[in-house]
Amino acid sequence: MNTALTQPGAPMKVRGIQKRFGAFTALDNVSLDVAAGELVCLLGPSGCGKTTLLRCIAGLERQDSGELYLGGRDVSVLPPQARDYGILFQSYALFPNLTVEANIGYGLTGSGRDEVRQRVGQMLELVGLLGSEKKYPGQLSGGQQQRVALARALAPAPSVLLLDEPMSALDARVREHLCTELRQLQRRLGITTLMVTHNQDEAMLMADRIAVMHNGKVEQYATSQEIYDRPATPFVAEFVGQGNWLPFSRNSISHAQVGGLTMRLADDAGRAKSGRLFCRPEAISVNPPVHEENLFPAKVREITFLGNRCRMSFELEHLPGHPLLAELAPEAMPCLGAQDIWVALPPRSLQVFA
Where is the ABC transporter domain positioned along the sequence (predicted)? Predict the structure, then answer.
């Protein structure tokens, strides 16, 4: 047994993975690289293929074609026990009849009793549960059970950690706290980590990079800021965060016609002659103090107070029947008492999708 907390983080490579279940294609030529020590989230809705990809990497499913490399080794056809990873499932899968101590030490086969006891103590200290050795899973909270499952996954000192929706059984406040804890722990250990989630907040909070999946494909693989600010496809734009869509036709390279309005576009907005313009709600200026480009009269439909921000629904005067959203700081609410306002859609905020 390795006495280090983990092995040095190992890079992971996925090359052209295909997986079908009968006529259904679960994974369609999926490729991605995960650097040593990096935390990557597979993000997407149910049925997009993210869990199937994780199971193929773990060896719990056999891909129909493609290759998998962990730490430079081709593990494409190796059994799960030969792949040098720890895994934390959505259900935690703790043994209810075993103590915390026995659960964590379960995978440490071939080690002496004193060695196992020392290792279990290291893991309990790592996850902040010293003193809970003799408790049973039923005596622990959901967050504590998750920590025990994480300690068990890390106990054999794997070079790769696989997480399958590990926070989904927890309430929102505990989830956010444990996300932060897990991220800090992962950075401290330098362990390469691949995490499956459908929760975009989790992915944004934790990941170095996010692979947004849809219909068995990776639609975009980038940092959270890149994915949010410059989504690569309409699906990514709609799935990550809120957004506004405006139908347009091109007047020129620098201008688009949206209903009865002409809007200026940024030089790198895209070259499509028609389609939809995409804009984040927080990019819209409401009653700006100075003149801005793409400034239009609008009518307020509804204002919703959301604590640290307000969400306003409005219609552009020359685009009726097409509600849009803007997000503002709460202190901006008093100036929104009137129904008639002015809004600006900055050219840099408008992205073109054909």
Answer: 12-240
